[in-house]
Amino acid sequence: MTWHEIEREQLAQALRDVTPDAPTLCEGWQARHLAAHVVLRERNPVVGAGIAVPALAALAESRIAALADQATTEGSYRDLVARVADRPAAWHPAAWVADTRNVIEFFVHTEDVRRGAGPVAAREVDPDLVEALWNQLKRTGGLRLRKVPVGVVLVRGDGVRHHLRSPKGDHGTVVVHGEVGEVALYLFGRGAAADIAIDGERTDVATIEKVLPSR
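Above: the chain sequence. Below: its structure as tokens.
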């Protein structure tokens, strides 16, 4: 199995382990909303585009809410989770970019479900998955920081470093320390639930905290 297939099953299992109304780290979403998001992201072009096109965001949210509203009972919720576990057909465009698109997405959403009700023990991450996540972070981890003038260096738990972005103007660089999975959660907006540490000048740390709060 590829990593996106393994992580899809991890996500589906995390969803099976909770109730439809279980909280998640996604503000305003319960487990059924997150499941609806994953299903529609791969199968509904409006929802898929709404992630990147602000003008479609409200419509995408309404479609996610509508599907989630159909999954309030245990049976209907289990049916929805089964659709999460059922990957798109090989001919579907979502299947063509599954490894580059879904590994980190599914990893983060699994933690959204696992940590939604509060802190839990970090799950053991296979070393090969660590490398897959790290490679994706190096490519896309700075997307949320496009307008942030502060430089960012990532440092893994094993000491491996990556210069994610350079500072602009008079700003300096902050250093984000943590295991790769925790850094992924931080860079994808789940800093309050991630076990990371940030070093740097107070003003630079404050600047990045406005975009990616860590507490």
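The beta strands are 151-155, 161-165, 173-177, 197-199.
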